[in-house]
Design goal:
Elements: H1 22-31, H2 37-46, H3 51-67, H4 74-79, H5 81-98, H6 107-118, H7 139-152, H8 164-186
Helix pairs in contact: 1-3, 2-8, 3-5, 5-6, 5-7
């Protein structure tokens, strides 16, 4: 399974315009972020999936700007993903398919698997750690999003480098995760 399509394939970008208005093209360039799957997974895992709130927020904000829909409140849609997740994943897929994305997925199925894996957090130690992989069903959504941005903005770059905020998430997440592993290995002690 290929996680990322190379941005410089000759056949990947047609010479014709994709039909975006000048304003939409500016929005695409502003929000362009091709995120490698490994980086997405690392940020989700080490933030205990809190990164998904930010990622959903950025996606909803992009949709709000592109579709000029003032009624969309990205922060609430990101926080209440249980109500808005499937519609976000459907929007991402439809947008990618509108520029030639050849694959498909079921937003409802992906979201259901995401919720089921998230519910594993209720398991006893150490099985709850499996819930940290709840981002995995969202990889197809990430791939569709990356395809759209690569197609709509061929001159944009893949963001492999970490920003300052992402470095903080990785460092703090790694420290916290190490403390959890120490706690799991030491176990409970009675005094």
């Amino acid at each position: 399974m290929e996680l990322d399509v190379l941005a410089n394939d000759d056949h990947f970008y047609p010479e014709s315009s994709l039909g975006f208005t000048e304003e939409q093209q500016e929005i695409i360039e502003e929000y362009h972020q091709v995120l490698p799957a490994w980086k997405f997974g690392l940020l989700c895992f080490l933030s205990f999936n809190l990164y998904l709130i930010y990622w959903n927020y950025k996606n909803w904000y992009f949709i709000k700007e592109m579709e000029e829909r003032e009624e969309i409140m990205p922060i609430w849609r990101a926080i209440f993903v249980i109500f808005f997740g499937p519609s976000l994943y459907k929007n991402v897929l439809e947008r990618a398919q509108s520029v030639g994305y050849p694959k498909s997925y079921s937003p409802a199925v992906l979201f259901s698997v995401y919720v089921l894996i998230t519910l594993l957090s209720r398991l006893p130690d150490p099985l709850w750690l499996l819930s940290l992989f709840s981002f995995l069903p969202l990889i197809p959504v990430l791939q569709a999003r990356n395809y759209f941005f690569r197609k709509a903005n061929p001159t944009g770059k893949t963001t492999s480098a970490f920003t300052g905020g992402e470095i903080i998430v990785v460092v703090l997440g790694a420290i916290f995760f190490a403390l959890i592993l120490v706690g799991l290995t030491v176990g409970e002690t009675s005094y």
